[in-house]
Amino acid sequence: MTRKALKRERATARRKPIRPKGTRTPKRNRGRPAKEDGTELMRDRILNAAEELFAEHGFDGVTVRQVTRRANVDVALAHYYFDTKRGLFDAVFLRRAAIINEERIKAIDEYQANPGPGGATIEGFIQAFLDPVMERWATGGKGWKDYLAIVAQVNNTPKWGGETMARYFDPVIHRLIDGLRSIMPGARDIDLYWSYQFLSGALTLTFAETGRIDRLSSGLCRSSDEAAVRSRMAPYIAAGFRCVCLAKNRKPPGGKQP
Amino acid sequence: MTRKALKRERATARRKPIRPKGTRTPKRNRGRPAKEDGTELMRDRILNAAEELFAEHGFDGVTVRQVTRRANVDVALAHYYFDTKRGLFDAVFLRRAAIINEERIKAIDEYQANPGPGGATIEGFIQAFLDPVMERWATGGKGWKDYLAIVAQVNNTPKWGGETMARYFDPVIHRLIDGLRSIMPGARDIDLYWSYQFLSGALTLTFAETGRIDRLSSGLCRSSDEAAVRSRMAPYIAAGFRCVCLAKNRKPPGGKQP
DNA sequence: AGAGTAATTCAACGATGGATGAAATGATGC
DNA sequence: GCATCATTTCATCCATCGTTGAATTACTCT
User: pTM of the full predicted structure?
Assistant: First the structure.
């Protein structure tokens, strides 16, 4: 017994049997398909189509019918596998979140266990945190790019920015902050968290590849230029952390100091 | 002759006069209202309601009916004033964009004309660029906060991140970059633009006040803490610019240098 | 005072939204 | 070889969507 059965149980005797209507016209293309391997599983077809569309138009800008049309699949199948539209979105979001999160934890652990000569640095930790995502973004193909565009939208939406992001990403971020704290013993947590906030904004916007910088710079910069991002983002962010989190560099610019 | 007349002209004789239906039931509450001053104009009521809802749910997550219901106004009135849903959104977006853009240009001009003793600094320019928004965010009330939440979503959406943001914000950004270039004669444009990109992400996410950092820090930080942002954002960002744009500070972290 | 115009509401249109019950059909296990 | 199960499609439900034509009422100008 799989999803359908569960669903039917949940919805026991909800409606009257409304459908005394027309007789069925038995046509082709119905029922369980021949198990022809090699083709993508329908469930994955739906996920992939949804990923593309959500990346471009956001959750509310996409209809389930658009997704299933792109996947060449019946509408009902999306509900069969994912129950609701929201369930489909969550499935898209989860699929890759698990992967980068694991890679990130591993990267930070490895860096801390074995930093280069001279010991661990702020830039080193930031790099370890960024690298897995950067790598997927640069070489993971359209699927990963679409996924990162979705993350950017979720991160910047009040409705989801709080809970959805938290559930999936908080542990990794705490791991990063632990690492940074270990090499900045004097840093206050409040400074570390705010610095991460700025990091988060810069990161998600950049990987979202909105095309904004291309236009702004009249084509001088390209959103998709991985080398450009690779050589600048970590240094930029590390400099910010150094400035904000190391007390000696803090200079109150007029405002009161908390 | 105002909007309605223009609209009717545009749609000359488009449809057959479909409506041989029921007779009108003349009730209260119709037609042009008595000119009772002191109350908000209906056009503004619609704009305000739309601003709130767009901030929370995004363009596609809001229906025109929700907006007019919150504004206590008939649906048709929204189309009377703004033609389409998109027109309504643009009106919301434009209303405040004009204000901050003007203030920002003025702030940067003034800073460059009269920096403190010691001359202009990177941090000074950044501060001049941020201050008008910061001020509105901190003291402008819910309207401005909602507006900035909308900006964050637009900025991070591929569909609009390119064109919509460009049309309204590019001139100010170029003004900022001109200022920065004037005190960093050796800086390459490509570095300045990429640095701005990181600034942009940090800025829009922070002002969007998604509540993310509150949860992440277990309540240690509050999204709405203006003093915390005021004392950290400009230094963080200025440090990043210094690091990326001043050649002597550039150190290639393994990747190839463009 | 009457004609014209601006602002507001009513009532509907056609399309489409998410969702689901039931039929169909191949695979699986006994 | 037959009953059960998992997967897929068909056909539809009902609510709601953006948008509009026309009626209605108040204000403005002559």
Answer: 0.88
Q: Find the helix packing angle between A142-155 and A189-208, rounded to 10°.
A: 130
Cβ-Cβ contacts under 8 Å, B249 against chain A: 235, 239
Q: Which residues of B touch A211 (CB under 8 A)?
A: 158, 161-162
Residue B169, domain CATH: 1.10.357.10
pLDDT in tens, B34-90: 776 556 789 999 999 999 999 999 999 999 999 999 999 999 999 999 999 999 999
Identify the residue among A216, A245, A250, A251 best suited for mutation to test binding to B, counting B beta carbons within 10 A and taking the highest: A216
pLDDT of the residue at B30 = 72
What are all long-range contacts of A73-78, with beta carbons under 8 Å and residues at least 24 apart?
A73/A42, A73/A45, A73/A46, A77/A42, A77/A46, A78/A46
Residue B42 lies in a domain: no
Q: Tell me the pLDDT tens digit for each residue of A61-73.
A: 999 999 999 999 9
> CB-CB: which of B191, B221, B238 is closest to A194?
B221
Nearest CA in chain A to B163: A212
> Which residue segment(s) compose the domain that B145 sits in?
96-249
Residue A88 lies inside a defined structural domain of this protein: no
Residue of chain B whose alpha carbon sits nearest to that of A214: B162
HEC string for chain A: CCHHHHHHHHCCCCCCCCCCCCCCCCCCCCCCCCCCCCCCCHHHHHHHHHHHHHHHHCCCCCCHHHHHHHCCCCHHHHHHHHCCHHHHHHHHHHHHHHHHHHHHHHHHHHHHHCCCCCCCCHHHHHHHHHHHHHHHHHHCCHHHHHHHHHHHHHHCCHHHHCHHHHHHHHHHHHHHHHHHHHHCCCCCHHHHHHHHHHHHHHHHHHHHCCCHHHHHCCCCCCCCCHHHHHHHHHHHHHHHHHHHHCHHHCCCCCCCCC
CB-strand contact A30/C, under 7 Å:
yes
Best of B89, B168, B216, B220 to substitute, by most chain A Cβ atoms within 10 angstroms, is B216
Task: Provide, as residue numbers in chain B, all residues whose Cβ is less than 8 Å from the Cβ of A249.
Answer: 235, 239
| Nearest residue, CB atoms, A240 vs list B161, B217, B240 | B240
Q: Is residue B90 situated within a structural domain?
A: no
Report if residue A222 sits inside a domain. yes
